[in-house]
Design the sequence.
């Protein structure tokens, strides 16, 4: 098992990808997401790979319900993370080497703010609009 894990993770880490792994129950995963905004953001992209698809479905349903319920409390933290990223990377239109994911005005900014917003919502406001 260690050889399989090493064969999977080390090439990704050596390639400069920021990946992590953990083995947690659904409740432990939701608790980690409640404690750490970056964990919660990463889990919004959780996809089923193998095993019981019901576990993935339950995780995603509970995670999205929590996001929607706690959105007003999470938005200040999300805004702070976004501002910090933009200050670090810069504005897309004004950097010599644009980062299409992380720069201000890039597609990653819009995606991160909309990916947890309810589909089919009757409002056209994004969660970051005032």
Sequence:
């Amino acid at each position: 098992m260690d050889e399989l894990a090493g064969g999977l993770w080390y090439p990704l880490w050596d390639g400069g990808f920021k990946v992590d792994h953990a083995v947690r129950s659904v409740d432990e995963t939701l608790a980690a997401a409640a404690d750490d905004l970056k964990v919660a953001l990463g889990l919004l992209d959780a996809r089923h790979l193998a095993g019981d698809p019901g576990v993935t479905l339950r995780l995603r349903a509970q995670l999205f319900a929590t996001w929607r319920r706690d959105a007003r409390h999470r938005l200040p933290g999300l805004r702070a993370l976004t501002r910090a990223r933009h200050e670090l990377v810069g504005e897309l239109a004004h950097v010599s080497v644009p980062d299409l994911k992380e720069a201000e005005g890039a597609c990653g900014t819009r995606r991160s703010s909309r990916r947890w917003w309810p589909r089919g919502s009757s409002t056209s406001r994004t969660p970051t609009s005032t």
The helical segments are 2-14, 26-35, 37-43, 53-69, 71-89, 107-114. DSSP finds six helices and no strands in the chain. The radius of gyration is 17 Å.
